[in-house]
Amino acid sequence: MVMAEGFTDEGKIWYNGAFVDWKEAKVHVLVHGLHYGSGVFEGIRCYATEKGSFIFRLREHVDRFYRSAQSYKMEIPYAKDVIEESIKATIRINGLDACYIRPIAFYGYHHLGLNPIGCPVDCVIAVWPWSAYLGEEASEGGIRCTFSTWRRIDPSTLPITAKATGHYLNSILASLDAKERGFDEAILLDTKGYVAEGPGENIFAVKNATLYTPEARSSVLPGITKASIIELARDMGYKVVEKRITKAELLDADEAFFTGTAAEMAPIREIDNVLIGGGKKGEVTSVLQRKFFDVLNAREEKYMKWLAPV
Ligand SMILES: Cc1ncc(COP(=O)(O)O)c(C=O)c1O
Asked: Could you report the per-residue pLDDT of 100-152, keeping only the tens digit for each?
């Protein structure tokens, strides 16, 4: 089998407090998390810059990791500082200067009753090289999206602000559906029909140089990239409005783009064959993207507070 980008039989994975060989980082087939999706995780990136390797918003990601765990009454058996230091140590031991970072905690091997209490909480940190999730060309040329036939899971059904493994079945369906119909990515509406987000990205629309993004109480994950883009945009003098966005408003936008750790910042050039902003990356998207990449590359003194040295 050909291995996916960055996956390797070499390297080490941090597993419940110790490093194990990549190939040996295994679970029992009866772990609770495997059967019921009772796990929480994070996606974080480390960037190689002229000033060294830096992890983007490490503390915020670790905070969300713990908040997600709390939603499922899961106690991560390590202090936040230990997780942060272990993330850095995992990068160092694998000799990487830029990588994607995947911490995950899940209810482990003990019983398979639905109430997970009593199962141990297993905790893993893996790192590997992973380029922009939607492809390098996406950040320039933009991507083709479709409104998904699947609605985004509703906050009355699951605590959608948690980044929990089981929630991603919704994202998987949306992603499969979009790919099957020949699009790069899906856009999910919430159960009321308003724009929510991508399967693994938050979404922004730009109209008359104002940025719009679905408000926090919509069915969206509170994205750390989203929060960063909002802060950058406001600091640059743009107005940012968080509100409910209709399908029609998104289709009528001058520009639209996705944000997320994996996708970074990806312009949307088309939705269901309707061109957005003439099908090209727009002015506001370009300006913000340049700024964001400067921040990630440690070229913006003001935002060095967002970068944790490895
Ligand atoms: C469903 C979903 N929405 C949005 C995002 C973007 O969040 P972040 O910018 O924190 O990566 C992600 C990725 O984590 C996601 O999985």
From this structure: 999 999 999 999 999 999 999 999 999 999 887 677 778 888 999 999 999 99
Report the CATH fold assignment for 138-296: D-amino Acid Aminotransferase; Chain A, domain 2 (3.20.10)
Closest CA to 228 of 291, 170, 147: 291
Active site (annotated) includes residue 163: yes
Q: Which of 12, 88, 163, 281 is catalytic?
A: 163
Q: Ligand 1 mean position to 220 CA, how many Å?
A: 9
Rounded CA gap, 302 and 196, in Å? 31
Separation of CA 155 from chain center: 18
Residues in the chain: 310
Position in ligand 1 atom list of the atom nearest CA 61: 10
Cα 41 to ligand 1 centroid, rounded to whole Å: 11
Domain spans of the chain?
12-128, 138-296
Q: What is the mean pLDDT of the chain?
A: 95
Domains 12-128 and 138-296 share a fold: no
C-alpha 39/C-alpha 104 separation (Å) is 7
Q: Say if CB 44 and CB 55 are below 8 A apart.
A: yes
Annotate 290-309 with b (16+ C-beta within 10 A) or e (fewer).
ebbeebbebebeebeebbbe
- What end-to-end distance do the CA atoms of the chain give, in Å? 33
Axis crossing angle, helix 224-235 with helix 283-296, rounded to the nearest 10: 110
Which three-class secondary structure string do you get for 224-248?
Answer: HHHHHHHHHHHHCCCCEEEECCCHH
Which of 148, 201, 219, 259 has the most ligand 1 atoms within 8 A of CB, as the residue to mutate?
201
Among 198, 193, 178, residue whose Cα is nearest residue 262: 198
Strand 99-107 with 202-207, pairing: unpaired
Q: What is the CATH number of domain 12-128?
A: 3.30.470.10
